[in-house]
Known about the structure:
Layout: E1 5-8, E2 15-16, H1 20-31, H2 49-59, H3 66-86, E3 90-91, H4 95-103, E4 110-114, H5 119-127, E5 137-139, H6 147-162, E6 171-175, H7 178-186, E7 190-194, H8 201-205, E8 211-213, H9 221-225, H10 237-243, H11 255-263, E9 273-277, H12 283-290, E10 294-299, H13 302-311, E11 317-321, E12 333-339, H14 350-360, E13 361-372, H15 387-394, E14 398-404, E15 416-423
Parallel strand pairs: 1-4, 1-6, 4-5, 6-7, 7-8, 9-10, 9-12, 10-11, 12-13
Antiparallel strand pairs: 2-3, 13-15, 14-15
Helix pairs in contact: 1-3, 3-5, 6-7
Amino acid sequence: MTTKAVLFDIDGTLIRTGGAGTRAFAQTSELVYGIPRGTDGMKFHGRTDTSLVHEFFQKHGLPSGSSEVQRFLDAYLEFLRDELRRCAGQPCPGIAQALDGLRTLPEPPLVGLLTGNIRAGAALKLEAHGLNGQFELGVFGDEHPIRNELAVLALDKLRRRFGSNLEGREIVVVGDTRADIECAHHIGARCVAVATGGETLAELLAHSPEWAVESLEGCSAARMAAAGTHWEKETDWESLYQAGDTRWDKGAPAPGLIDFLKDHATSFRPDQRVAVPGCGRGHDARAWAEAGFHATGFDLAPSAVREASRTHRSERLEFVQADFLSTPPPAKFDWLFEHTLFCAIPPARRTAYAQSVRAWLEPGGHFLAIHYLQPEDEAGPPHAATVKEVLARFSPDFELIRHWVPRSFEGREGRERCFLWRKL
């Protein structure tokens, strides 16, 4: 699939203005409409300028006809110009390299804008950083007040450029808020979410972008344009164990599991059985046994099972060499726990994975999973996984009790999410 267009948000994605737009709105409220602090409580991230003006008028009982909207925006632009002269801010990390890289790809996509800024405000902000003239197409906040409808307009404009057969999935939207993710998905486009604006990486991942990064610094343009695609390679886990190439093994139970077992220590029934598929060297299975469970770890690599059996000895703990996806359950379990097993399984085999989880659990049994959310296009494992996919895979047969961002090993902070399910 060829990516025909990459569309960028501005604030928090291309540039950081240090709140120039927010201050300009506040000055318009006070100096033009005589309302000090009139924009307090308004949320600006991910919004269109025109929707903010309408909210301001509604909040203060002011008429909101088109002439009044234009009056507000004209004044706002003057204050914005002054604010940018005082403090223009700076480009977000990696932006210059990203724009240059996209244009030098073998099949360079159109590079454009999809922003809630009105056109004139966007021009002022981009000019302050030498970015004017770098974008072939733009859709702006004065074309529609609703963000998702701006995405529809962008698709229409791109179809006039590339033909009516252009599909949303041939477009990548780059943005820093959940609103950018939602508007991309509204037209079937893919989203690269960057945590350089108002939301953290974990908050962005909760909305299932196709790729999420702390910033674009060091990210190749090819990966950006290919976000949401993946290719698979065969993984010989036994060979990796024999070669000592087990970089995923941190030598300790998952921090999120340790916290869960500690927080729920008084609510567990004694002597419950837990299965830990993909147990590796058995650190997580050991933690369950120490919490009073009868734990059985399963792994398809014989070397992993041998090492786990040699290292962890307990009457409450055993290890079995088995392929979780194809082996019939040796018994029904009260609990099933996995840590980053889902992302190690190619997407084509995840239906079998979900079926195995269901088959191995007792009715009413609990499934606790810590998923590594890595929506990237590089070859797996780990393979791409999103909150949206996890919910779709398990909701038919399980009740979701809750999900949260757990404590993680260094380097995985914000990328893991813990899900607690009960089998229906």
